[in-house]
Hints:
The chain is an alpha+beta fold.
Amino acid sequence: xxxxxxxxxxxxxxxxxxxxxxxxxxxxxxxxxxxxxxxxxxxxxxxxxxxxxxxxxxxxxxxxxxxxxxxxxxxxxxxxxxxxxxxxxxxxxxxxxxxxxxxxxxxxxxxxxxxxxxxxxxxxxxxxxxxxxxxxxxxxxxxxxxxxxxxxxxxxxxxxxxxxxxxxxxxxxxxxxxxxxxxxxxxxxxx
Length: 191
């Protein structure tokens, strides 16, 4: 009898242990928050680096080519600057031990970095829903995160959400909807 009770107790302990150790699915919003946190950390590393710009060029096509052998992917970026936003160059960063590409822009004297993550290199990033966008204004600097296909993009900097959305051309087809939503929900995360 005691052996049966011991076996029952052991099987219950294993069952309880398994149910506690299995994590529930991470909510979609939390995935975006994780990426925004990592993007902000890479932004801060770039700002602390005495020479954050590692490329010798400001031409988008040359910067894209410069990344290829260094990060093993060609980031899909179409914004070469314009108006009050200037492309200054690029840098290779590390986020969660994975190489990411960073495009450094200057907007009204402030640095803004577009970070491109290869979504499939990290299991957390791979679970981010495709064609979704979220702007995080709850802490400085502002971080906008979205996923298009195999890449996750984050624009980080001391710029308003409307400006970070302005760097989206070619990446997000619903840009007008994003701008309208960000104006309507100023101060709250935009989905």
